[in-house]
Amino acid sequence: MLSMRSFYIDYIDQDDSSERDPFPDETQFELEKEVLVGTTVTLNFKFKNLFDNDYDSDYGKIEDINLKIESDDNDLFADNFEEDYDIGSIANDGTKDYEVSFTIGNEAKARDYTLTITLDGEDGKSARHEVEKELTFNIKRKGNDVRFEKANLTTTTDITTCSPRFMMDVKMRNYGTKNQNDAAISIYNSDLNINENIPHIALESYGENDDTWSRTFNFNLIKPKRLLLLLK
Q1: I need a surface site. Which of 30, 87, 149, 209 has the fewest CB within 10 A?
Q2: Which domains does the chain have, with CATH numbers?
Q3: What's the pTM value of the predicted model, to 2 decimals?
């Protein structure tokens, strides 16, 4: 007597476009397009108690409702993903909206993944009610996808005009499937007289030995200004 009839999934496809797929009233469902690695997926649920108001409210109310979302491979998630969610209770003929989001890890493998989504609760006569669905989608990597993994200022003290020297640690990585032979980085601020340009950076495709590039830059502060960091 529990329903997951109406919910939809928001995601970013392989072309960096926002997509929204409805989840039909079926046990198994697959997203229409591939999902881009490193992006956020949001599941938007609408749960319904199918006991109508003809039932006694003490009997028809469903309590201790739990939502469980399990992946066939936890390497899918960027962080530790919470699998269990306490939904509380839903009165006769009532509904409840709920939303769960997760970020796909940058290092997730490009392949199919399946989420098993289970909703269960207990009515006033201690009977358990459960509904289960499966959502399958394919993780995609773009051909050209170079990103910053780190761009941090490093100093043992606060940066001031009295202690003007500071460093910046920069690391970028190729998350794409193509080798990049002409990547570049630029750090620029005219007031600080900073104009660092590193062209022709070679990065192998994701997963190879040389898919990252890093460097520590040393700067002397003239005036406190903002830095502009560009990845080309």
Answers
A1: 209
A2: 2-140 (2.60.40.10), 146-231 (2.60.40)
A3: 0.76
